[in-house]
Amino acid sequence: MITIKKAIEYLQDQIKIIDEVEEVELKDAAGRILAENLKAKTDQPPFARSPLDGYTFCAEDSIGASKEHPVQLAVIDSVYAGGWTEKTVRKGEAIRIMTGAPIPKGADTVIRQEDTDYEKIVAEKENVKIYKEQKPYENYCFAGEDFQKGDCLLNENERLDSVKIGLAAAMGYQKIWVKRKPKVAVLTTGTELANPGELLKNGQIYNSNLFTICARIEELGGKVSFMQTIPDCADAIRNWIDHEIDQVDLLIITGGVSVGEKDLTEVVLQKMHANILFHGVKIKPGSPMLGALLRQKCVLGLSGNPFAAFVTLEIFLRPVLQKLTGSDSYECEKRKGIAQMTYEKTCKNPRFVRAIWEDGNVYFPPAHASGVMSSLKTCNCLVEIKECRDGIKKGEEVCVRMI
Ligand code: AMP
Ligand code: MG
Fold first, then answer.
1. Residue closest by Cα to atom 8 of ligand 1
2. What is the rounded end-to-end Cα distance, in angstroms, of the chain?
3. What does the pLDDT profile of the chain (403 residues) look like in tens digits?
């Protein structure tokens, strides 16, 4: 048995970065890994603009203005968001202006309309009374104050989330180059597996791993190219792998990695002349897992136990995707917390326990067995217990991986 760290190293050493890129529309780019540096095509904002609704003029004109002694200015034009005025504001003049509208020449300040007599006149005003002294560049958004043309704001290998996509749009991009998604084939093996929707025969259970794993791959930005379920039959498993392996970057198999008579994964891979990198990892649950290289492609063989499959996928999929894409955006979020309950179990190997992190406190659900999935629903993290520990004591600080 090797450590998790070593197992990840073995896999990463063998994986080649995908160098294909594709151009996608920004609206389809959520979760994708950027394949270029993006430089702003324009200043943002492209012109000096007003942050509020009011009047714009030269601050000097408002010296001494107050409610008791207003300054009266002549209103020479109005400008709205999306509009433009060629007029220059001169001494004694103002222009009616709305949020987002360009500040005209000659003006250097905007007063909010609440500090003027704007309400009293319904129709176009010819004059406005200013009730407050304004400083130069008060309520004035400079052109390029957010970013300037040519600024590089997004870099190759960054993963695009909603904020970054909005930023790319503000920078003027409609299409961008991203890395091709890693293609994954998912194979669940087990004669006992029935597809959801089918009637269960004696001895059968519904196949949940297939759906958990495929959903997680998609959540983390991979593409599930093929998914299949095959009974514990070496020839059938071999035929399927033989057919699909060349079309994907990664193969994930669940079931059949342990020591039972029907645990065929390693046997099949060996027959196909795969290079078994490791079989057995110091991790609980899921220790019988294996990693292999078959025709240059990475293979992960996971225990069929749903929670074991979930944990090992959580620990191993991220570093594999990280290496495949060359992006370091796959790190999971880690937090610290104080255990509010005791978890008693001797842990010879590192163990991951499902838990709930809430405001720095960590709670364990009542059910923990590897075959139990229902209690995972309420959990949002895995507590990592280091090897050679007698579990976790109430009040102890623990490290959790958010899921
Ligand atoms: P195995 O890893 O094949 O020894 O399976 C371990 C346990 O997980 C057994 O109880 C299996 O019935 C169950 N199991 C295997 N594959 C799946 C699956 N795809 N979905 C749900 N349970 C499974
Ligand atoms: Mg089995």
1. 305
2. 26
3. 999 999 999 999 999 999 999 999 999 999 999 999 999 999 999 999 999 999 999 999 999 999 999 999 999 999 999 999 999 999 999 999 999 999 999 999 999 999 999 875 555 779 999 999 999 999 999 999 999 999 999 999 999 999 999 999 999 999 999 999 999 999 999 999 999 999 999 999 999 999 999 999 999 999 999 999 999 999 999 999 999 999 999 999 999 999 999 999 999 999 999 999 999 999 999 999 999 999 999 999 999 999 999 999 999 999 999 999 999 889 999 999 999 999 999 889 999 999 999 999 999 999 888 889 999 999 999 999 999 999 999 999 999 999 9
Contact in structure between 392 and 347 (CB atoms under 8 Å): no
Angstrom distances, CA of residue 373 to CA of 132, 242, 288, 309, 365: 65, 32, 19, 11, 11
CA 236 / ligand 2 centre spacing (Å)? 15
Q: Which of 305, 307, 376 to mutate to test the pocket of ligand 1 (most atoms within 8 A of CB)?
A: 305
Helix axes 306-325, 209-219, angle to 10 degrees: 30
Q: How far is the CA of 150 from the centre of ligand 1 (A)?
A: 54
User: DSSP secondary-structure letter at 64?
Assistant: T
* Residue with CA nearest ligand 1 atom 23: 304
- State yes or no: cis peptide before 104, omega within 30 of 0: no
Q: How many Å lie between the centroid of ligand 1 and the Cα of residue 13? A: 30
Distance of alpha carbon 370 from alpha carbon 236, whole angstroms: 27
Is residue 387 within 8 A of residue 342, CB to CB? The reply is no
305 C-alpha vs ligand 1 centroid, how far in Å?
A: 5
Q: How far is CA 215 from the centre of its chain?
A: 14
Is cis: bond before 306, omega within 30 of 0?
no
